[in-house]
Amino acid sequence: MKRSAKNILIIGGSSLLLLIMIGFTSVKNAGRPIHDVVIDIEQKEGNYFIDKPEVLSLLNAQNTDYVLGLPIGEVDLKLLENRLEAHAFIEDAQVAYDLRGNLLVNIDQSKP
């Protein structure tokens, strides 16, 4: 009985510590600004129908919604994905960020 209570206390304390650490890192990363936009365009059959400057223009909504310098917590990744996927030459877009403050954009072009 005594050993069981001790195990429950250790597991509970470890879980609480883990939750506190996860919460701290998520709050810390939400305030970190975006330093760079890393764009990876997957080509189909050697053809490039869209280029990096055009992707940056789509991300920035024709220079009205500039993402560089914004805190990571304020960037709506799903909105950016939908904005990119609305383009005729983009089949699929994945937008994420890394721990260094980079916005990662992976694009699959539509097959002509």
Helix content: 40-55%
Computed Rg: 21 Å
Structural class: alpha+beta
- Helix count equals 3
Described by the principal axes of the CA atoms, the overall outline is: elongated
Compressed to H and E, one letter per element, the order equals: HEHHEE
Q: Whole-number average pLDDT?
A: 83
Largest sheet: 3 strands, mixed
Low-confidence stretches: none
Task: Output the strand order for the largest sheet.
Answer: 1-3-2
What is the total tally of β strands? Answer: 3
Give the DSSP E fraction (strand runs of 2 or more residues).
15-25%
- Compute the separation of the termini in Å: 69 Å
Outline the secondary-structure elements:
Elements: H1 2-30, E1 36-42, H2 52-59, H3 77-85, E2 90-97, E3 102-109
Parallel strand pairs: 1-3
Antiparallel strand pairs: 2-3
